[in-house]
Amino acid sequence: MATLLIQHALVLATFDSRRREISDGGLFVRDNVIEQVGATSDLPPTADRVINARDMVILPGLVNTHHHLYQTLTRAVPAAQNAVLFDWLKTLYPIWANLTPDAVYTSALVGLAELILSGCTTAADHLYLVPNGSSHDDEIRAAQELGIRFHPTRGSMSLGESQGGLPPDRVVQDHETILRDSRRVIETFHDPKPYSMCRVGLAPCSPFSVTPELMLESARLARAYRVRLHTHLAETMDEEQFCLERFGKRPVDYAASLEWLGEDVWFAHSVWVNDAEIEKYAQTRTGIAHCPSSNMLLGSGIAPLRKMMNAGVAVGLGVDGSASNDASHMLHEPRQAMLLARVGGDIKALSARDALELGTRGGARVLGRDDIGSLEAGKAADFIGVNLNRLNYAGSHDPIAALVFCDTDRVDLSVINGRVVVQDGNLLTLDLPPTVERHNRIAKKMVDGT
Q1: DSSP string across 378-404
Q2: Of 142, 365, 378, 427, which is most buried by a Cβ count within 10 Å?
Q3: In this structure, how many other beta carbons lie within 10 angstroms of the beta carbon of residue 262?
Q4: CA 244 from chain center: how many Å?
């Protein structure tokens, strides 16, 4: 069995139950599992591969709990730059209708590469439209090639404009097609075992793009297969108004009426929730993907993050789509979460360590995983390293907080499932220049084809 030794880290932040921070720390890994964590002097002196992490902060790999990888193809589209969510979607739906299998695959390569280089080792994705022969297989293949731990969700839209929904009819599917393919994706790709590299979920898109019947049938299908459920909820006031007018309920009560609360469910956003709804989340152990950059870009509002955390709600961070954030930069999200939480005037609302914990332990909890999110014996060997001996951090006095307070452009080291995928700041599993060139060609063709 192959062994890997990380030694002499400036500081190793475990994010374990004791929140240990170890100076001159390191890790000893056997195959894909952490065997020892501690001071370098307490670890074995040799291994098959030894990495000197001097000047580095080592911490658990970040967990992205919400994304739309295909949206890397529509970053900074002029007509969508200053639009609220519903107008933004109506602008982009016709472009997304031009997706192809190669577009889904290539956009996933680009988005996942950006995530990995910015510290992400586990990513959930929400692909909710699959036109022109595209499928979830295309993005799963990209994740496998890059070596990232992946939580694809079989997204769906079934409520088109002709039925009172938001998306055009040409990008929705009928219930039978959605449920049949949901079974196929689960049966083909879902791996529930510890240290799994691919776990599938079901993800009807939103209250304004799927029918109540599909929401309920998807929930029951997911529970029959013991997979997780995901959707957007309570993102904007427009959504709340839609739910009140169409269903006579606020979004959280609507979800509850369709069996969409529970420890196997996580919602993206939850900006517009009240105290009683937060308590429902806590009591049912429903998880939340907090997406600060996207919420700011679309003017959706400020999620009551601190209230949710204080209530015991499981909260992780999400980059969200690269057209509602225009970046797939995972290490920026803890910073954005910290800054946004302080906007209301509470300077202690979220510390740098709180923010990083949301991106590590918090994300693991939201995705229902107990094998990632911290650095301790028995956990998956997923970790990142950032060298502080560079311009970005000059003059910083708290190495861990510096990752959030200062600008972190990319990680220097990333190990996923015991495999080194980033070394010296370079991604080892993808040739980036030709991929970016192909991605740009596809993006231009998609926009020109609308």
Answers
A1: TSB--EEEEE-SSGGGTT-S-HHHHHH
A2: 142
A3: 16
A4: 29
Phi-psi region of 299 (alpha: psi -120 to 50; beta: other; left: phi over 0): left
- Residue 300: C-alpha distances to residues 229, 251, 276 (Å): 23, 15, 21
What are the tokens at 243?
């739910």
Sign of CA dihedral 319, 320, 321, 323: negative
Say if residue 278 is in the same domain as residue 383.
no
| Overall size of the chain counted in residues | 450
* Residue 40, Cβ density class (10 Å: 0-12 exposed, 13-18 middle, ≥19 buried): buried
The residue whose two tokens read 């003059």 is 395
Q: Into how many domains does the chain fold?
A: 2
Determine the Cα–Cα distance for residues 275 and 116; give it in Å rounded to an integer. 36
Both structure tokens of 9 = 């880290």
Question: In terms of domains, do 79 and 168 share one?
Answer: yes
Residues 29 and 119 occupy one common structural domain = no
As given in the structure block, the two tokens for residue 417 are 């499932």
Per the CB < 8 A criterion, the answer to whether 290 and 317 are in contact is yes
Each residue's pLDDT, cut to its tens digit, for the chain (450 residues) gives 899 999 999 999 999 999 999 999 999 999 999 999 999 999 999 999 999 999 999 999 999 999 999 999 999 999 999 999 999 999 999 999 999 999 999 999 999 999 999 999 999 999 999 999 999 999 999 999 999 999 999 999 999 999 999 999 999 999 999 999 999 999 999 999 999 999 999 999 999 999 999 999 999 999 999 999 999 999 999 999 999 999 999 999 999 999 999 999 999 999 999 999 999 999 999 999 999 999 999 999 999 999 999 999 999 999 999 889 999 999 999 999 999 999 989 999 999 999 999 999 999 999 999 999 999 999 999 999 999 999 999 999 999 999 999 999 999 999 999 999 999 999 999 999 999 999 999 999 999 986
For 128, 145, 321, 327, the CA distances from 71, given in Å and listed in that order, are 11, 20, 6, 10
In a domain, residue 438? The reply is no
Beta strands at 21-30 and 33-39: parallel, antiparallel or unpaired: antiparallel
Q: Please state the pTM of the whole predicted model.
A: 0.98
Retrieve residue 6's tokens: 């990380």
Assign residue 107 a region (left: φ > 0; alpha: ψ between -120 and 50; beta: otherwise). Answer: alpha
Last residue of a domain, one of 344, 366, 388: 366
- For residue 36, tell me if it sits in a domain: yes
Question: Quick one: tokens of 141?
Answer: 């293949």
